[in-house]
Design brief:
By secondary structure, this protein is an alpha/beta fold. It is about 20% helix and about 30% strand. The protein contains four helices and twelve strands. The chain has an eight-stranded mixed beta sheet with strand order 7-6-5-8-1-9-12-11, sandwiched between helices. Strands 2-10 form a two-stranded antiparallel sheet. It has a two-stranded antiparallel ribbon with strand order 3-4. This is Dihydrofolate reductase family protein.
Length: about 200
């Protein structure tokens, strides 16, 4: 069985977006390098530095499914029915959309974080599940479902906004020392949950 990896670009003070859901310079590193790469969408190219490309190419191919919240789904319009990474997207929502124009897209709407992760893991099999940041990740962390955390740390301070772990106020949880990859205007920090905490 694969791992559940919470992942996002994040500011130095722990925010993945501002109060208006704008990411500002958090995604600039996706287009500031010479190496072209793609996720699942062959029409969406990224241009990153070599260190970031090497890291992404070691992570993205291992993702079988993605779990996102309804907020991100609405903000991106579900990437027009094409997952950014992985083969299938599980959207956590109490109210699935009734008028989304991509009914045959590989998206499943699920009522509840734990059930969405269970379905995503079943779909992914031996591959990993990517979990987007925010309240969704906080709820998964509280339920003990997060195996690894990937912070793409960008040198900016937001001051306020959407936190990586949302409104999480649960117990302290330990992670091992990170794998650290220094990119251009981003530092990739990949943490595995500590065995002492399991």
């Amino acid at each position: 069985m694969g791992k559940v990896i919470a992942s996002a670009a994040v500011s130095l003070d722990g925010f993945v977006a501002d109060t208006a859901d704008a990411v500002g310079p958090l995604f600039d590193w996706y287009n500031n390098g010479d190496v072209e790469l793609y996720g699942t969408d062959s029409g969406r190219a990224f241009h990153v530095g070599k260190a970031s490309a090497d890291y992404i190419n070691s992570v993205w191919p291992t993702i079988g499914a993605v779990v996102i919240g309804r907020r991100l789904f609405d903000l991106t319009n579900g990437w027009h029915g094409v997952p950014a990474v992985g083969e299938h997207v599980f959207v956590v929502t109490h109210e699935p959309p009734t008028d989304w124009p991509f009914p045959d897209a590989p998206f499943t709407f699920v009522d509840g974080v734990e059930e969405a992760i269970a379905q995503a893991k079943a779909f992914a099999g031996d591959r990993n599940v990517s979990l987007t940041a925010g309240n969704l990740t906080g709820q998964a962390l509280e339920a003990g479902l997060v195996d690894e955390v990937n912070l793409n740390l960008v040198p900016v301070v937001f001051g306020t906004g959407v936190r990586f772990f949302g409104d999480y106020t649960g117990r302290q949880q330990l992670f091992d020392d990170p794998v650290v990859i220094q990119g251009d205007r981003v530092t990739h920090l990949h943490y595995r949950r500590s065995r002492e905490d399991q």
